[in-house]
Amino acid sequence: MANPTSFLFLLSLTLLLLQSYLFRFANAEILNITTDKSALLALKAHVSSKDPHHVFISNWSSNTPICTWVGVSCGSKHLRVKALNLSYMDLVGTIPPHIGNLSFLVSLSIGNNSFHGSLPNELSRLYRLQFLDLSYNEFSGEIPPWMGLLNKLQTLFLCGNNFEGSIPQSLSNISSLQRINLAYNQLSGSIPSSMFKMPTLKQIVLLSNKLSGPITSIFFNASSLLQYIHLGDNELSGGLPTYMFDQLPNLQFLSVSRNHFSSVLPKIGNLTMLGSLFLYENNFEGTIPSSLLKCTQLEILDMWKNNFTGRLPPEIGNLTMLTFLNLAENKFESAIPSQVGSLQNLELFSIETNYFSGPIPYEIFNISTLQKVSMLSNNLSGDLPSNMGLFLPNLGFLSLGDNEISGTIPNFIVNASMLFILDLDSNSFSGSIPEAIGYLRFLEILNLRSNKLTISYSELRSIFSSLSSCKNLKFLILSNNHLNDVLPNSVGNLSTSLQILHLHDCNIKGNIPEEIGNLSSLIALTLSHNELGGPVPTTIGRLHKLQDEDMVGHVADFGIAKLLGDGVSLTQTMTLATIGYMAPEYGSEGLVSTRGDVYSYGILLMETFTRKKPTNDMFTGEMSLKCLVQESLALSVLEVVDSSLLSNENDYAAMEECLLSTMGLALRCCANSPEQRIGIENVLATLNKIKLKFLKDISGR
User: Fold this and answer.
1) Strand pairing report for 81-85 and 72-74
2) Do 319 and 293 meet the contact criterion of CB atoms below 8 Å apart?
3) Which of 220, 272, 561, 584 has its C-alpha lying 20 to 30 A from 373's C-alpha?
4) Which residues lie closer than 8 Å to 236 by C-beta, 6 or more apart?
């Protein structure tokens, strides 16, 4: 028995088709340029008054011929509207049904606006339409089945909208369709198996939807003209059909990235025109098929984040057109074949997070087109070639971290003058850093952490001075090496754009130089696990960004005892305490203790609930954040706390009591005498009691 729903759908579609043809012939005589004008004026009326490009305000006037209107083109024979192009006009509105009266319309393009709502059924009357671009608007609902009636349509762009539901089967009826783009919508369900069979189809883009299920049958008898297929960022599953590539002799671009595909790759060798293959973020497994290495026109091969295994075949060198080779996050092993050096057009080479071993072939460093090289997290060993950098004029990114590479850092690395990231983290490099490192003028990140570098005081002084030429330097990470000497004053010559400076576990001795306060952009500084002594320089207080993610100035002071240890002398003046968070004894007595950290924590509590920093301009002379809170407790704590905390009137009394208790605790933390301050363990216990009391009060109201 026939499905009633399917029957009703077919009947409705038939009636719509009949109406379309009746309209086409019965009204052929009465439709004219006046009809076209009325349709366009109806569109104008459906568009918001916001018309930033003055398309309608100054141009679409009933007093001027419509063939002179912006975006309107008329045919020379019938003087009817043939094309309407309102793309990139920043228009907001809906499409009126009157547009269906533009019966001579061949091209309709309104992409990159903010049209919304559903598409009127009357658009099915546009039987001459060949080009329809509704992309990057806010249309919603399902893609209407009547689109299958536009049997002269060659291009259909619906991408970047809010269409949902399944892809209508009726689209497969458009036998003239060459390009279809439904990307960036909310389409779901399976891909209709008939969709790829449209005889003239060359391009299909279904990127970034919610399409699911296997694709085992969709390529059977697919159009042999297909050149471009993008199925990425969906929920498709299963394997690629074994016959798939036999059906697509003209394929130039294929992306199935970000899906749930698995199994091994089928033979690909028949795709002699394939230029781009994107397989990343799936669960493909097995080895690289030998047939893939016969696709000599391949320029982009992205296999990132799968489960591929085995070795990288030497035949990879046959793909001499490659510009982009990404094999990262797989399970490849064995040595990197020297034939990679034959890829003289390569710009990106990434094999990070695999199991490659052995030395890096020196041939790779002779590829002058390279811009990014990442071999992070493998088992690579051996030395880097001494002339490395001589032939890398375009290299901007080099990451060799987390391997077993040894030897010295080649001096010629400074010839790779475009480098902005140099990451040699967690290897076994020895010796020093090339003193000419400052020639890397674009350097932003230098990470040499956890190596066996041995750098003397004079070398480090020269290196810091050299790095002062790197005006864009943001990250300098030298921790877990052997500096074994005093931190030179030239650390203050580093770029004022420096944000991260990690020098922990470096056996640094002596004092922290005052010049470190010149690094005004620092947000993270680690000097722990060294042999530092002496005073903490007052200039540390200038590093107001050494703080939390909100750039609130407290970390620079809070935790000083942890940095230097209890009882270390600080031969500073009283001005040190004006930084805002430091306890007064840091200046008057010169002693660091955990009681001082309690003081800083009290200031931090006040700041949290008042949203006022102790360094605020309002605090001058004798007035401070502590004084402000102290005075408010005598009057009304509600006058000083952040007003957004009091938005719920039902909890007003409970909130007031909670704030009084919290601010009282903060003041106990900030007692002038260290002996009178509450212990940090009691701070935690008191805060817990305040919290429990508050929860009890609001639950019982």
Assistant:
1) antiparallel
2) yes
3) 272
4) 191, 211, 212, 213, 214, 215, 256, 259, 260, 261
Closest listed residue to residue 376, CA positions, set 426, 307, 445: 426
Residue 474 forms part of a structural domain: yes
- Rounded CA gap, 570 and 176, in Å? 83
- Report the residue count for the chain: 701
DSSP 201-216: --EEE--SSEEEE--T
- Encoding tokens for residue 354? 């695999």
Q: How far apart are CA 401 and CA 375, in angstroms?
A: 7
Q: Which residues contact 257 (CB under 8 A, 6 or more apart)?
A: 232, 233, 278, 279, 280, 281, 282, 302
In terms of domains, do 633 and 687 share one? yes
Structural contact between residues 685 and 668, judged by C-beta atoms closer than 8 angstroms = no
The H or E element containing residue 694 is helix 680-699
* pLDDT, position 21: 45
**For the domain that residue 635 is a member of, what is the CATH number?**
1.10.510.10
What letter would DSSP give residue 482? B
Domain end call among 533, 564, 591: 533
Residue at 3 is within a domain: no
Residue 126 banded pLDDT, cuts 50, 70, 90: very high
- Close Cβ partners of 32 (under 8 Å, ≥ 6 residues apart): 80
What is the domain extent for residue 613?
548-699
Q: 205-249, pLDDT tens digit by residue?
A: 999 999 999 998 888 889 999 999 999 999 999 999 988 888 899
Bridge partners, residue 525, by sequence: 501
- Residue 150: name the closest of 116, 219, 100 by CA: 100
CA distance linking residue 80 with residue 67, whole number of Å: 8
Q: Which of 447, 399, 439, 444 is nearest to 420 (CA)?
A: 444
Comparing CA positions, the residue from 75, 95, 61 lying closest to residue 32 is 75
pLDDT, tens digit (0-9, with 9 covering 90-100), for 146-162: 999 999 999 999 999 99
- Per the domain annotation, does 21 fall within a domain? no
**What angle (nearest 5°) sits at the alpha carbon of residue 289, between those of residues 207 and 236?**
25
Could you tell me which of 90, 127, 134, 70 has the C-alpha nearest to residue 108?
Answer: 134
Closest CA to 559 of 542, 580, 582: 582
Per the structure, the count of domains in the chain is: 2
CA 339 to chain centre: 33
CB 507 within 8 A of CB 531: yes
